[in-house]
Amino acid sequence: MRTLIPERAMAILRAVRFRAALTTGGALLSLGACQDRGAAEATAPMAEETMAAAPSPSPATPTRVRGNAPVGATVGLPFVHDITQGGATFSGGQEPVTYRATFLPGANGLSLVGNRLVGTPLAAGQLRAVVQLRDAAGRTAADTITVVAFDAGLTEPSLPAAAYAYSDARVPLPAHIRGAAPGVPAGVVAGDNTPAGNLITDAGATLGRVLFHDRRLSANDRVSCASCHQQRFGFSDTARLSRGFAGAPTARHSMALANARIYPNGRFFWDERAPTLEAQVLLPIQDAGEMGMTLDGLLTKLRLTPYYAPLFAAAFGSNEITADRVSRALAQFVRALVPTASRFDQAFAGGGAPNFAAVFTPEEQLGEQLFRGRAGCARCHGQATQVAVAAVNNGLDAAPADAGAGQGRFKVPSLRNVAIRAPYMHDGRFRTLEEVVAFYDSGVQAGAGTDPRLLQGPGGTPIRLGLSAAERAALVAFLRTLTDDTFLADPRLADPFAGR
Ligand code: HEC
Ligand code: HEC
Fold this sequence. Notes:
Low-confidence stretches: 1-56
CATH topology of the largest domain: Immunoglobulin-like
Distance between the termini: 61 Å
Largest sheet: 4 strands, mixed
Oligomer: single chain
Order of helices and strands: HHHEEEEEEEEEHHHHHHHHHHHHHH
CATH superfamily of the largest domain: Immunoglobulins
Bound molecules: heme C
Strand order of the largest sheet: 2-9-8-5
Number of helices: 17
Structural class: alpha+beta
């Protein structure tokens, strides 16, 4: 009988808590510690009825009071989680209560033992455990718990004590990149697509750098943005098609991200389907083949990862983690990828018209002249970043298998670092720059969409440049001057995750 009085007190307490939960909309603080549903109390209710002087209210209907927040686990390490949160999850219910769980999409090595989720996660990923409380009267209440199993090999980023410089104030774009320098071809605009609402800040780009290199952005922690956009390959990939988180090939060749900031119409992807960079950067995360996440799933993972709250606070003033902030930080980092130290750039060091004779070999000078002149490359690959103002069809095929932005039109990529990031074009069809130059020299196809600049008059036959072998070699030599080794090894842009 010694258990009867405490048990009575507990039933009343539960009823009080339940009513409080109703009147406070469920935002209930725990009222006490007497929440252990031990075996002893389960034997008492009958005696309790006879003890009561007045009829007691029957235990309230079981209710979920405070849902479980998502919890993190690590693949291969034992995991235990009390789904009652020490009694805070459910209130009411007539003893004895039992719990059971359904796992979606699968249990991943976990099971429910009593009121505890236990086990050792087998693979990285997220699951939902739908747990149900059933009381002695057969009444139920349920909660859903998200469990994120992280890969065991993940590490923390190591960042400098004082943030690296990324903002325009601290690392201004050189005049020739801004398009303001004399000697930059007339009629082209610098075309900076940075929106006024998302200027690059040092803390924002730092967060973007961490996100960009973090494998947690993919469903199974295998792939980061940097897996397909590798710094040493000019933020592109040497594979013709890259592999997503589960090994599936991408539909097109990975794009080099240098100078993404400088594209006047501000659209992204080979076919320009993303209207802004802010919109673009969230798409690979949610792509079923590339990273395989939902935005909710992403936010859950980032909130469970301790180093993110301070990075978001530094970047945006509070540690709230939202998809909008993820997008803005990633876009800031991508816009910070502007190479400025190639030999080509050195020709602009004097501040006036470029002095190519001072930095180039005679062959490279010839290539530069051909690029701007007879070979006609600069008509599309314009200004000092070799970008265009809109997508065009450069005559790869008379009948394109991939329509791109319509009629075989594709975004004109900046040619920075092009020499170290073969293969080329949206489908990676060319393995060398020699093949690319040979194509423009004698391989352009006339199709319905072929750009008129590559035809001899409207509706005409494709141009044939008739370059000599020396001229073709000179063009390739010029393209090699666009390699920026400082950029390709810049610690500000590098993978901050050590030891993997
Ligand atoms: C599995 C490989 C893969 C991953 C992972 C990946 N990308 Fe890409 N990325 C590509 C491919 C392929 C394209 C071109 C796709 C197309 O145009 O259809 C591309 C295009 C882009 C572009 C467009 C560039 C331009 O000039 O239009 C940007 C920006 C970009 N990715 C950024 C990112 C960011 C940020 C992440 C991480 C959140 C990321 N990518 C993750 C493969 C990948
Ligand atoms: C009419 C516009 C136009 C002209 C002229 C032009 N290009 Fe291109 N260039 C493009 C487009 C569009 C692409 C991307 C096409 C695709 O992937 O389907 C491209 C792609 C390239 C690439 C591959 C870049 C990458 O990241 O894969 C190289 C290299 C290149 N061009 C060099 C040249 C050279 C050298 C010349 C002059 C001989 C030239 N281009 C003339 C429009 C043009």
